[in-house]
């Protein structure tokens, strides 16, 4: 099938590339000329494991092409995915202006029937609103489907190729038939293809994200109580998660969630509810706890180094909002870097893949180290913000040799409590007792 994809971001590029991998002819368009230029050279504009290989194969087989204009994604295609951004606007609602613009452009370029598929995360009612835009532009010959995406950055290819479920909100048998045909190759493992009305499909995405975010915020709130009560949040997490009714996923205490989805989607859901005259106290609390959690380790830092960080150097491990991505949107690390810098610290950061995206946000306010160990040279503390695998088993002796002061603030609970202490480190983590080297030993170290 010939398919168009509008938006070559984290979702659109994976969607288009995976559809091409299944034998479809796919044209992906984006208004960002830099992205399209890179893609035409066979390079992904962002880091996603496994994506470069798929891109190379499908470009070489001529199943995947790229363009700048919406019309290129419409010409000769049967189905068109809309995967443009829906960022948070000033009121905390989803900004639908990119989608509306793309829909108007599509309306202007359509010649015959098209299945228009909204993949972007959009509030309930958007499908209807887009149908009105198309109707106003004089279009009658279309079906409009709402097909929210559930992929996770860092495992996006795997998630798209082997989804837990695919949700399609449709109003016509014709749209359902085409979507079945499109998605059939991705459902060989027996995952369900759920057809709903568009409003329910739109809502399923928000409820899924809010529920996952609620588990993170709930566990983070509990981790604060654990600290105060002298309990170990990691043991509590395990003990709770073994209950099959609860499960272990999304219960890791840390610095809170970030990224381009959970923060904005939880706020957008609350905003929609409130604009309908309803209250959304749970959504608001999920967000509040998450924002507060970024500062969870700052009191410990102040106790150790004092209120002013003038003349102090802090090493920061991890800038991406989570491992296996270069996405720094709403990354806790950026807030922490800004805070440390405001307090007068010199910040030296390292991330395996997100240094360039972080530099676009933070500029030269911080230093970007050549390696995780280089970031530690002369540092008074190490702040761990992202749980990259390569930070999990570091050479603590090497770290100790490089740092001026052996102090670790671990926002992702990467280490057991004993190991850092055995190497002479004072170690603060989330919801667990702080461990310090006895004074006598510390002097010798
Ligand atoms: P993104 O910002 O990475 O990509 C969006 C792309 O759309 C950008 O490259 C932008 O230039 C392009 N664009 C905007 N207007 C355009 C137009 N008129 N024509 C062509 N291109 C246009 O965003 P993303 O992370 O891929 O997210 C896209 C949507 O999917 C959002 O609604 C998001 O909430 C949702 N989503 C994201 C993820 C994720 O993990 N990133 C997961 C599920 C759902």
Q: Please give the count of helices.
A: 19
The CATH architecture of the largest domain can be given as 3-Layer(aba) Sandwich
Q: What portion of residues is helical?
A: 40-55%
Tally of DSSP β-strands: 14
Adjacency order of strands in the biggest sheet: 3-2-1-4-5-6
Q: Please report which band the strand proportion falls in: under 5%, 5-15%, 15-25%, 25-35%, 35-45% or over 45%.
A: 5-15%
* Largest β-sheet summary: 6 strands, parallel
Helix/strand-derived class? alpha/beta
> What do the pLDDT scores average to?
96
CATH class of the largest domain: Alpha Beta
CATH superfamily of the largest domain: NAD(P)-binding Rossmann-like Domain
Gap between N and C termini = 66 Å
Radius of gyration, whole Å: 24 Å
Shape: globular
Poorly predicted runs are none
How many domains make up the coordinates?
A: 3
- CATH topology of the largest domain, what is it called? Rossmann fold
What does this structure look like?
By secondary structure, the protein is of the alpha/beta class. It folds into 3 domains: 2-196, NAD(P)-binding Rossmann-like Domain (Rossmann fold), CATH 3.40.50; 206-293, N-(1-d-carboxylethyl)-l-norvaline Dehydrogenase, domain 2 (Orthogonal Bundle); 298-428, Rossmann fold (3-Layer(aba) Sandwich). The protein has 19 helices and 14 strands. It has helices at 10-21, 33-40, 51-60, 70-74, 97-109, 126-136, 156-161, 173-183, 198-229, 233-241, 262-275, 281-293, 298-305, 332-342, 355-362, 372-375, 396-402, 418-422, 439-444, and strands at residues 2-6, 25-29, 64-67, 79-82, 114-118, 142-146, 166-169, 193-196, 313-317, 346-350, 367-368, 381-384, 407-410, 426-428. The strands form 3 sheets. It has a 6-stranded parallel beta sheet with strand order 3-2-1-4-5-6, sandwiched between helices. A 6-stranded parallel beta sheet has the order 11-10-9-12-13-14. The chain has a two-stranded parallel sheet with strand order 7-8. Helix 15 (355-362) links the parallel strand 10 (346-350) and strand 11 (367-368). Helix 11 (262-275) packs antiparallel against helix 12 (281-293). The protein is globular, with a radius of gyration of 24 Å. It starts with a strand and ends with a helix. The structure holds nicotinamide-adenine-dinucleotide (NAD). Nicotinamide-adenine-dinucleotide binds next to helix 1 and helix 5.
